[in-house]
């Protein structure tokens, strides 16, 4: 066994040390593997970043109520009467001022994207102080809170990063109304940072919403326990509402962009097939280049298995080097890259690419897959070709 | 099989099928090699010299007949068993040395020892002895590309003898060397035969090289046509 191990180590070391003889072919394999891994990681990092942004916004402590059948906040309409009925329900946490409930409006306004100079939708949310308190990690980065009853607004850090004209002190015109930016807020990088926040009453007034709202957020007495609220909704015919925890709501919103990950995997798989073809060519060339050495070793008494392992190891080393290069490139170019895309309510969601360790593992697995498959068949040939034929080929 | 017989070919044939044509290399060939023999095999190109050498070394198989080594039949061994047999009993010396270009002289010589259970220290000692025997102790760390053809062939001889095989098979060992260097290499083979008891079979085109052997067999069209004892 020790002898077999020595054989494999020796053959592998010789193969690796002979790589400079096949420098360009070997580099081509490294690069092909690197590109495939980088593309995979870019897609996965995008999907992961988006998912994290959406899921980070959801809390089990908060329930969101919308009109029955409304898939997103934008489609929902609720009356003041419904808000009052929900406020009386059991299961809602209370403080000294009463139930922790936030009736909110959600309208779309235009912004100019810094990256492209084109217009894109931004959500303007009307809410009250209790609503802001329900957002975990919400804090002001700069400036101050808007004053209720005025045309002041605070701007999410993501909006400030991706859109022009939302710096503190700037006046922003939406239609006939001019709003003043008085603060920049963060909610820890989640989807709320892609929003503008203003006083709910002012949003109602400027957008002719009367006394209507679009969603109600309530803080639950027991996190995740929707049963008392459901009971109220079922008992009260005027409450034709859907209820879910905020976590479930955003998870569903994020679901639609899972296609990014699927698309990324499909693209990477197709590219991996192309890379495999190139890698196979490299490895067959390698075996042909080493034919005389392989034949000599086998004549000396080295086994087929060591020739097989040596070739597979060479392919794995090249593909792994490519994988490492691709991962490094993905990390340098994409990790933390901020961008925005259309979210569930036809508004822009600002998010950052996340190249995390688990993605590196997926990239490494793909590189090793390319290495193993591209090494296997040439290795099989190296191991099975008769010694006299190998001598003839290597002459 | 008498005690002094090392190798025996009994009615060995070798043929290839190329397209619809059957090409016969040997037919019904008999050969006996005794321990301590130094045999030169000569013959024109295509006479089957190298094929014969490959069969003796177990890297090629006969189409018919039997090959016996040290009292045991070896032509019917599995590929794995034949590989192990080769590692234990045969040392190869090639025309173009066939050294591993990325390994230094000592590492090249060590290769056959990696197939044994010797420790690293034991292997090192064997390598030093083999390199000393071929006069290359001072070249142990040199890469093949840094040595002359003669030196490379001496490294190849050291590699062939390092695991103390009974039989050395040499395929045109001086075919790539000038006369003076060729003579040095042949003298070394003669020394290994006379003083270390190695049995040697050498394929060569060169009558001057054949004179170093104890006997010369002339092969033509798959038959031994002449046996010549060297004085």
Automatic annotation (TrEMBL), chain A:
Regions annotated as coiled coil: none
Record's subcellular location: Cell membrane
Domain MacB-like periplasmic core: 27-235
GO CC terms in record: plasma membrane
Membrane-spanning parts: 23-46, 262-284, 305-334, 359-380
InterPro entries per the UniProt record, alphabetical: ABC3_permease_C, MacB_PCD, Macrolide_Exporter_MacB
Record membrane topology: Multi-pass membrane protein
Alphabetically ordered keywords of this record: Cell membrane, Membrane, Transmembrane, Transmembrane helix
MF terms (GO), sorted A to Z: transmembrane transporter activity
Stretches assigned to the ABC3 transporter permease C-terminal domain: 266-386
Secretion signal span: none
Name of the featured protein: ABC transporter permease
